[in-house]
Amino acid sequence: MERAAEHKALERALSACAEGHSTVVLVEGPVGCGKSELISEAIDRAAARGGVVLRASGAAAERGLPLGVLAQLAASGPPGLSVPRHERGHGGLLESMELFGAAVRRLRATAAVTVCVDDWQHADDLSRAHLLHLARASRSAGILLVLARTLPAPVPDPVLETELLRLPRLSRLRPAPLSREAVDTLLDEADVTDTGHRRLAHRMSGGNPLLLRAALEDLPASGADRAPGADGAYGQAVFTCLTRAGTDARAVAQAVAVLDAHACADTVAALLEQPVAVVARTLDALAAAALLDGDRFRHPVARAAVLDATPHAERAALHRRAATVVRQGGAPAPEVAERLVAAWDASAPWAVPVLQSAAAQLLAAGQTRRALDCLRLAGEGLAEPRRRADNALRGAEAAARIDPEDAESRLTEVLEEARTGNLDPENLTTLAGLLVGQGRLDEAQEIRDLLPDADPGAGSGAGAGLGRVGAEAVAGVGADVGCGGGVAVLGAGSGAVGAVARVGDGRRAAGAVALAPRQPGYGGGPVPERADGARRHPMAGPVAVAAPAESVASGGSGVLTALAVAPVSAALAVPAVPGVPADLWPPAGRDGARSGRAGALGAGPWGLAERGGAAAVGAAEDQLRAALVGCTAIEPVLGALRTLVYLGGPARALPWCAEFAEQTERRAAPGWSALVRTVHAEALLRQGDLAGAETAARTALAALPRSAGGTAATGTVGILAQALLARGHADMAAAELARPLTDSAQAAVPVLSYLRARGRFHLAAGRYHAALGDFLEIGRRMRRWGLDRPVVLPWRTDAAEALLGLGETRQAERFVTQQLALPDATDAWVQGISLRRRAALQDPRRRKTLLDRSAEALRRSGDRYELACTLVEFGRALHECGESARAAMVNRTAWHLADECGARPLRDTVESSGPAPTRAARTVPTASSSELAERLTDSERRVAALAVRGDTNREIAGKLFITVSTVEQHLTRAYRKLGVTSRQQLPVELQLLVTEA
User: Fold this and answer.
1) What is the DSSP code (8-state) at residue 78?
2) Contact (Cβ atoms closer than 8 angstroms) between residue 147 and residue 115
3) Distances in Å between the alpha carbon of 792 and those of 136, 486, 679, 907?
4) Half-sphere exposure of 571 (CA within 13 A, CB side)
5) Cβ proximity of 196 and 223 under 8 Å
6) Hey, which bits of 338-485 come out as E strands?
7) 652 to 17, 480, 645: CA distances (angstroms)
8) DSSP per-residue codes, 319-333
9) What is the per-residue pLDDT for 605?
10) Is 105 exposed, middle or buried (0-12, 13-18, 19+ CB in 10 A)?
């Protein structure tokens, strides 16, 4: 292809040889562009004419072997042609050349002679001298000499080179890379039709025939937009080209591969310590061979092949020198650091600052893994303990983006350094903030106590005890998210990146927390091991066993049985009822629940405004809008999302959760994504979307690269287990709860969600003492940490439920009363749950009234699952009061809600308590909720909604301040518009369209 001119030149040379005119054909050009093919063509044409062909090939490794090429020529010829004996001295050399020339001319007496030597640039000097002497002395003998060499060719002997170029019948052929049209023709012949493959073949080969053939070999195994690996045929072809091009070309190619985007004649020359002019010629030759496009490799595979073929020690040395070269050229820190990491050498005095600066820039660009490599190398280059600790803190902040459990272990190592006094106040402040971000509040308090200006009595006010930097960070971020100095909030996830900013290093504060002093008498230390060395289950409760999960009813020996029979430790031990711990009882007064721990925590990822909920929700949304532009820390985002979930309602939080989950995935931050999806799962759980909560929680766990045993995953597991329990998958919930947790996770805030799930699991299995132990432990920790907010986790009503199971109604009543006395009791969700639990302590008439109020509150909250739970009990209360018709309506609604939530056990309790809804009653109209709303007037919707809830016409009239006759008229019109004939057939969705004031 595109070699017709060269073939004609060879044919003319062979014809001249046949006529007795000796000719020399010099084929020269870039490596891989068809020189060897032309040599083969000359051999084939000469053989076809019946001539004698002598062939040889030079090799760089045999460059110093005297007469090595002549030996190959003699071996390829007819018998009798031998290599002349080399004698030292001018006379001996001349005699040897004459003897060789005479032997070749004798061959010419019988047939035309063609001598072909490939890779002439590697031929030894003696062989070169003999062949040039043959060309000079046999001008009329009819001998054709075809020589091929790669440019640029070394000139070991300028005299011989000059003699070659002065030969009278010298023909020079210079094959070039194929044109684009020729490559297209070859691709057509190879039946390559895929557009992506064709584009890739052009890019990889640049018209170089050798590289094109290799690329075609690799393409069938690669996708349209995916190049082959460096160990494929293309990579081997690149290595072959460079080997044949010589050591100088290979060295320049290695330098280009190491310098990459910074490669040019000047930088390559500086790296190799060679003259710029020499390097420039080599670069031009490599570009002419289509190995380079300008000063860079045409494709990353070629660069990777060159680096892979370079010995490790040599490659490291090149990277080390390249770091200096690109730094002196003013390259950005990440590009200098890339070479330092490749060399794994931070010995230069400037290396550590460059690596740390590069890490900060790479984090801003979302390249977390590269940033971690920089910080790890920087750590090896630091000898002073305080600087090493500072670097480790940077690494923990970075690791949290992709692997929160790795960040957790890094902080644990730094924590040990802090305990030995190797951290300065600034690093102590940062460490405390990072620990708070992970929910490790006890350890954060321990670090706070190490600060020189720590005030043992401090604890109120945002930023207290964390020093000037921490206080400034708290003030700034707290104002952003509207989380002023109130009670902090627990959540299901865990922040894993630093919560306190450093001065001058560009790291933004992610929220800081002021910790109250540790109170004695509350555990939280490492879980003891059993005698056999196995770790006790988290919170010293059930033992984690690798046994098959079995159902509760089976009473087998699987995971459920292990959870059932495992002992409760002293830290969780529940005194014999009625001896509930006194510290959990409310003292006199409305605010007794927070006595002794008031204002313990300020803003940060666990922060929640104590008052001004609407303002806090608005500020949280403002914070989230600002974070969409560029999120540099996840803590403010998590704090704002939790504020929306707990104060604004899950429906308001869900769109934001979805947006930030997608954003963190786009930024390749799976650790952050897991934290956001955990909040997403909790919001879905608060809506009663059990299947959605399960899916979101599993997605969060799947985003974590390690086993779900760290602080980041503990809360997620708790949410997942709660959703599974509500859906009736007790075995699956048991398996999740049986996962071993790290020591840090067992003492961190996210474990509260885990403990609640385990307590609910014990309740479902009838193990009320174990359940009460978990709920009381939640209470201890929430009060100790200053996180006691029922709007987040209503542990008092959970404990009351366990106490009711134990028959301790008086103590259960005290817990419910305490929860209803807290400010959070005004929240619809807290109010609905609390009233339902209080109703269980009353007579049927009083219970009916309280459950009615509970249902109204839960409708406002939007939690369908909790509403269904209330309606199930409401139906029973109505039945006990003799209101069977209304009970049937309520049960019908409860059944549909439980069915929509996927709460099979709850739905089945409706069926077991009376006749199951008929198929007609279960059928939901095909119209959507919005379509139903459009069919009815506002008055008809209000009346129909109350009818669906089970209210009589007279009760509806009383609630809406209208006459019974008006109610009947509205219902009649609603029946007609909806195509039903009775209130039993009214769509259940109507009750959720209208919220009664």
Assistant:
1) -
2) no
3) 99, 14, 12, 26
4) 20
5) yes
6) none
7) 92, 18, 7
8) HHHHHHHHHHTT--H
9) 72
10) middle
Distance from first CA to last CA of the chain, Å, rounded?
86
Q: Which tokens is 654 given?
A: 């869900």
In whole angstroms, what is the distance from residue 650 CA to residue 658 CA?
12
Structure tokens given for 416: 């040990």
- Local structure of residue 30 (DSSP, 8 states): S
Q: How many CB atoms lie within 10 A of CB 965?
A: 10
Contact between 335 and 357 (Cβ < 8 Å): no
Residue 523: phi and psi, rounded to 5, are -70, -140
H or E stretch including 55?
strand 52-57
How far is the C-alpha of 763 from the C-alpha of 563, rounded, in Å? 12
The CA distance from 476 to 482, in Å, is 10
Tokens coding 323: 């770091």
Predicted local confidence at residue 90, as pLDDT:
56
Give per-residue pLDDT as tens, 261-298: 999 999 999 999 999 999 999 999 899 889 999 899 99
Burial 222-259 (b: 16+ CB within 10 A, else e): beeeebbebebbbbbbbbebbbbbbebbbbbbbbbbbb
Per-residue pLDDT tens over the stretch 464-514: 333 333 333 333 333 232 333 333 333 333 333 333 333 333 333 333 333
Q: How far apart are CA 323 and CA 348, in angstroms?
A: 10
692 — phi, psi (to 5°)?
-65, -40
Strand partners, 171: 25
Residues 125, 123: Cα–Cα separation, whole Å: 7
The 10s digit of each residue's pLDDT in 551-594 is: 333 333 333 333 333 333 333 333 344 444 444 544 333 333 33
Q: How far apart are CA 174 and CA 149, in angstroms?
A: 10
Write out the two tokens for 561: 């049985």
> What amino acid occupies position 776?
L
Q: Which ranges of the chain have pLDDT less than 70?
A: 1, 86-91, 153, 220-227, 453-604, 607, 611-612, 706-708, 911-933, 984, 988-997
Q: Is the peptide bond before 578 cis (omega within 30 degrees of 0)?
A: yes
Residue with tokens 């292809």: 1
Provide the token pair at 921: 């009653």
Report the amino acid identity of residue 933.
A
Contact 243, 266 (CB under 8 A): no
d(CA 542, CA 739): 10
Q: What is the 3-state composition of the chain as percent helix, strand, coil, each rounded to the nearest 5?
A: 60, 5, 35
Maximum distance among all alpha carbons in the chain? Answer: 137
Report the C-alpha gap between 773 and 776 in whole angstroms.
Answer: 5
Q: What is the DSSP string of 86-149?
A: P-SSHHHHHHHHHHHHHHHHHHHTTS-EEEEEESGGGS-HHHHHHHHHHHHHTTTTTEEEEEEE
- Lookup result for tokens 């660069």: 303
Listed in sequence order, the residues at least 6 apart from 702 whose beta carbon sits closer than 8 Å to its beta carbon are none
Query: What tokens does 41 get?
Result: 């063509």
Beta-sheet pairing, 23-29 with 143-150: parallel
> Which amino acid belongs to residue 609?
A
- Token code pair at residue 399: 């690791």
With H, G, I as helix, E, B as strand and everything else as coil, classify residue 410.
helix
- Whether the ω angle into residue 425 lies within 30 degrees of 0, i.e. cis, is no
* Residue pointed to by tokens 């920089």: 374
Q: What's the pLDDT score for residue 826?
A: 92
Within 13 Å, how many C-alpha atoms sit on residue 340's CB side?
33
State the pTM of this model.
0.69
Gap between the Cα atoms of 35 and 437, Å rounded: 66
Per the CB < 8 A criterion, the answer to whether 778 and 785 are in contact is no
